Amino acid sequence: MKREIKSLAIIFMTILSAFPALGSDDDVSKETVTVTDLAGRMVSLDLPVESVVITFNFEEYLAVEGGDDPFERITGWTRNYWDGRRQWTWEKYTAAFPDIEDIPDVGYIHKGTFSTEKVLSLKPDVVIMCVVDYEAATDDVKKLEEGGVPVVCVDYHAETFESHSQSTMLLGTVLGREVRAQELVDFYQEQVEVVTSRLENLEDPKPTVYVEVGDKGPSEYSNTYGKDFMWGALVDQCGGINIADDVVETSAPINPEYLLIQNPDVIIITGSYWPSYNDSMRLGYYAEPAESKLRLESFTERPGWENLKAVRDGRVYAIHHSLSRHIYDFVALQYMAKCLHPEEFEDLDPEERFEEFHQRFLPVEYSGVWMTGL
Does the predicted model carry a pTM greater than 0.70? Predict the structure, then answer.
């Protein structure tokens, strides 16, 4: 059943001074409003903003902002989230927008390098954080607010339709792009319901699933995910049973012996381009199909994996790591549904839908390999 995003003004903000022509993307006059962010905080802002510092979810920001130069209002950001951690994505965007190399870096909260002094010196109208960043930087947020810079939190890590939709509409409000934000939410809802509508009537047994970040390569077990967090939440939404639900709370490596005992039906290795690890699972804008398959196959050569059901049955897959905790995680949802229930979702083409998402909402062209299997 189609869910509607109703009463957005009630959900997201208490208007202190009414907007003229609310919902128009062309409004230029500023009004003071109080928004309720995804951390449950009430934040007063002068909207629409003219300058932004952002620490995460850049692509959601760019998708909502739109236009020929969606970076124009970004005066500072956490560069390390792109450069180094998602290198091919960084290279794709800097090739299309060379000037973003010059956007000031404000540091990375989870590396302890985030600088409130740097942010305050940039004098942004607002700082946009994800909830995970906010929870790790409450003292920094307090300093910013004491310095007159409001902080607004979005949340795509929870991997729920509601938090994704609310976060996107909140970005639309902050940027004065409510119409485009609604278009994005509508598209996201359509793509999610392609999966959820079928799962409601699916009677097949739920397969057991193991997901691992492939950043460290086959020689070392990296993080897997627990219930209701990133990939763990997506496994549940796709009608699977995550074998890490009872042993991992959010993210952590699993005991290899536990994995062998659980003997999952499906294994999914996430990939990206992590320059620090030579044998990592590589996927993304510049990935080559043959190399990606060879790298995925190398994970099946781990000690004991030749006896795993997923390996014997050829149900080992790879998917780009950034296809979770983002508004385009419907791509991961569709691909994982195909992996877990191949007959029911044989007709889905998540790559085609991701290409369409690029054409409609992102400022760079689709390319490379984002998912593959043995």
Answer: yes
| CATH class for the domain made up of 8-192 | alpha beta
Residue 48: cis peptide before it, omega within 30 degrees of 0: yes
Give the β-pairing of 74-77 and 52-54: parallel
**CA atoms of 164 and 108, how far apart (whole Å):** 23
The pLDDT assigned to 127 comes to: 98
pLDDT band at 8 (very low <50, low <70, confident <90, very high): very low
Domain layout of the chain by residue ranges = 8-192, 207-373
Same fold, 8-192 and 207-373: yes
Three-class DSSP category at 328: coil
Report the distance separating Cα 41 and Cα 129, nearest Å: 13
Question: How far is residue 65's CA from residue 73's CA, in Å, rounded to a whole number?
Answer: 9
Query: If 0-12 CB within 10 Å is exposed, 13-18 middle and 19+ buried, where does residue 150 land?
Result: buried
pLDDT in the model for residue 229 = 79
Q: Residue 214 — very low, low, confident or very high, per pLDDT cuts 50/70/90?
A: very high
pLDDT value of position 227: 86
| β-bridge partners, 34 | 14, 44
Q: Which residues contact 34 (CB under 8 A, 6 or more apart)?
A: 13, 14, 15, 16, 42, 43, 44, 45
CATH superfamily to which 207-373 belongs: Nitrogenase molybdenum iron protein domain (3.40.50.1980)
